[in-house]
Write a structure and sequence with these properties.
about 100 residues; mainly alpha; 2 domains; elongated
């Protein structure tokens, strides 16, 4: 019984210590963030927001271009596969002729 109480107190102390360290870490991160943004004014913030919007727009354009290119290559592959299937079906396979000069 005494061992259980001792283990409980040790666990409580360790838990308190971990919570205290976590709180100190969070406070330090908040102070660092506050120092980083303390020099920002509303004009700077508005410029940052506009820059982020432009970056998002450019990323969307790039992604749509990539998607269009992928669709185009898929269409080309499908057209080639259909053409080959039709040639096999019609028996229009071109024989390879060995021409020596």
């Amino acid at each position: 019984m005494e061992n259980l109480v001792l283990y409980g107190l040790i666990a409580l102390a360790i838990g308190f210590f971990l919570a205290f360290c976590t709180s100190l870490h969070a406070i330090a991160r908040l102070r660092k963030f506050e120092r980083a943004v303390s020099s920002l004014d509303w004009d700077s913030l508005a410029d940052i927001v506009i820059d982020v919007q432009k970056l998002k727009k450019n990323a969307q354009k790039y992604q749509s271009n990539v998607n269009a290119a992928q669709k185009l290559t898929q269409k080309e592959k499908m057209a080639l596969a259909i053409e080959q299937a039709q040639m096999r079906q019609n028996g229009m396979v071109m024989p390879i002729v060995n021409q020596e000069m």
